[in-house]
């Protein structure tokens, strides 16, 4: 399947005057009036001499130089060129320090003159590009000599902060160590911790630097008065409660970070900043202020996908993110699929739904959800008309652990390998998730484990049955730059109950195939089959995936992968029919997660089955 997630990539669309649009850093529909005009434009030609064959250092210098990055753009006036050159020298020296080159020098000539010898208001020849020369003499790379932590940092181990004698003395490492020392001291509930001294003394005779970092931790203090500013329609008391920065709770930078992230995920604020006071209150607590800016609460958008087997699909939605003033969300959505795959309007797939969510319904760590959905779907295995009503609640036990439970009532009219049947099923879905991933859309370490159960009673056939599913995915990135990530996933499920498979709705039986399970096969193509080669679905499944995510550049990555799975008619998987698919994917990094494009082929396809699959989306496949 090939999908174009227009709504996700472009974001919600709001009514308003047409504007230039920026997508992935590129501007579209921009008029000439919107382009930046440069007064008294002065062009220049650049000769850049980095003074090194070290590719890492050369690239760092070239990237640091604005003269190099902007050499196709004119500057404003002769003085503007001089100011740009002086700024460039500072930037280049900083880049040298970042690579431990503390003895390096930077010389910049404009029209043959050193910038230090130019008058305050220089004048260069008109009518021609001004020659600019940048010469860098990097000097040797310095290493760390003595490293001393003093004051309240005296008991800390320098090696923990990557400051060890003989290591390359990059300035970024020294700065990062000081920042982390402050964080570690603050995690001891000391909000006023600070660095009081950070000295770096270079010995040019030995090409070493001696580092001294002194810290003052300050007193232990709990969270004090918590105020909220910037709200317009959102209840500030709700913001205060939902942050979970309770008065009297031990102060912790990690708790503050999580509180800000928790408020951002409500999607009602365009920005969230939590500011601590610079001194303690008279009662010895640390006051805090949550500063928010509300975003647009009403939105609508669209999406679409194209499939080689299912034609064109279109989706649209409208939503409100702050229905009653406490971040309650309401979303109405609908879709039409299989356009072009069939000319019969009655043969298209349709779905519509209303979804409601109320954060903090049963305390700050809870969310109540309710939904009503209707669909007409026609995958290869069955044709179904369904209406489902559901309600439930999720609870955050810890930042990594969540549980949810609810109630569901579903009516389905289904034509499948067992004929035409109708079902009315009541269910109680239960789920536990533990998620330690460092990034939900592009993880490089950690894992996610899930287990759920769905006890059910089919009312018309008076049949009890239950489904149980579990899955786990894990991620490992050797090295510190995360340019090579191993990712793996395992999943399994079992259906218990029902005398016959036909007693269980086809929408509850197990199938595999498609972008979410075994790529290379079409959606739900992997299934046990009857004597007429019709998919029946199964009572159990096992599937697994393995990916190698390789970053070619900072934005482009390739991902070779292999998926495999088996669906069985018995409650215990018999692995009598294992289907596997393999392929390669392309990733393009964006601020909201990688855009994914995967191509896969089945390694043992069904007779007359899918030859290949193309899948697209936002975020990694798992």
From TrEMBL:
<keyword id="KW-0812">Transmembrane</keyword>
<dbReference type="Pfam" id="PF07244">
    <property type="entry name" value="POTRA"/>
</dbReference>
<keyword id="KW-0472">Membrane</keyword>
<dbReference type="InterPro" id="IPR039910">
    <property type="entry name" value="D15-like"/>
</dbReference>
<dbReference type="Pfam" id="PF01103">
    <property type="entry name" value="Omp85"/>
</dbReference>
<dbReference type="InterPro" id="IPR000184">
    <property type="entry name" value="Bac_surfAg_D15"/>
</dbReference>
<feature type="domain" description="POTRA">
    <location>
        <begin position="223"/>
        <end position="295"/>
    </location>
</feature>
<feature type="domain" description="Bacterial surface antigen (D15)">
    <location>
        <begin position="322"/>
        <end position="622"/>
    </location>
</feature>
<dbReference type="InterPro" id="IPR010827">
    <property type="entry name" value="BamA/TamA_POTRA"/>
</dbReference>
<protein>
    <submittedName>
        <fullName>Cell surface protein</fullName>
    </submittedName>
</protein>
<keyword id="KW-1134">Transmembrane beta strand</keyword>
<dbReference type="GO" id="GO:0019867">
    <property type="term" value="C:outer membrane"/>
</dbReference>
